[in-house]
Design goal:
Layout lengths: L8 E3 L9 E3 L11 H11 L7 E5 L5 H8 L4 E6 L2 H14 L3 E5 L13 E6 L8 H10 L3 E12 L11 E9 L2 E8 L1
Parallel strand pairs: 3-4, 3-6, 4-5, 6-7
Antiparallel strand pairs: 1-2, 7-9, 8-9
């Protein structure tokens, strides 16, 4: 049974920080990925999460990245544009003593990066702003992705087609309420 967190908190479901609640900044439009969706996603990722390098674009609450770290990911890079979100991510990273980088950038636009590519990308842009297609296009051309990266995408259910590059293959997909979510593999 999935427990519900307070609106201002999300609960880490499993791993070293299992049951730990992290705060969520009160920002209009910020909607953390629900526990039910995270549970399904991380069941999908279980065979590859340990030791993975993850990128959490449009990080918001950081629920996806912190869940990944709790379950054994080697490192997470969080990105967001909001100064309040960045401060929240820095505070939570310190509190958990987590291995993470935090960048204040517009994740819908290319940004400079010179590190190792990522094994898993969490892509959960704000809904109803048409950010997904452009973000996927620049991301695919960037040095951020490894050859066989897995990409998690969360969208509004009303979106009729997934605007991703043709060599990104849907491995899993599911709907819950008004949300559709997908795990893709970049060939």
């Amino acid at each position: 049974m999935i427990k519900k967190s307070n609106p201002g908190q999300v609960r880490i479901i499993s791993g070293q920080w299992r049951g730990r609640k992290i705060s969520v900044p009160t920002i209009e439009g910020l909607r953390p990925t629900t526990e039910a969706v995270r549970e399904t996603l991380f069941n999908w990722l279980a065979p590859i999460i340990v030791g993975a390098r993850c990128l959490d674009l449009f990080a918001g609450s950081g629920a996806l990245g912190f869940e990944a770290l709790s379950r054994g990911a080697q490192h997470v890079m969080f990105t967001d544009t909001s100064p309040a979100v960045i401060q929240h991510l820095q505070n939570t990273t310190q509190l958990l003593n987590a291995s993470a980088d935090i960048l204040q950038v517009d994740a819908s636009q290319p940004f400079a990066y010179q590190g190792d590519p990522f094994d898993i990308v969490f892509l959960d842009p704000p809904f109803h702003q048409d950010l997904l297609e452009h973000t996927c296009a620049w991301l695919d051309e960037s040095p951020l992705l490894a050859n066989n990266t897995y990409i998690y995408i969360e969208t509004e259910r009303a979106l009729t087609s997934l605007p991703t590059p043709s060599h990104w293959h849907v491995v899993r997909e599911k709907n819950l309420g008004q949300v559709s979510y997908y795990l893709l593999w970049r060939e």
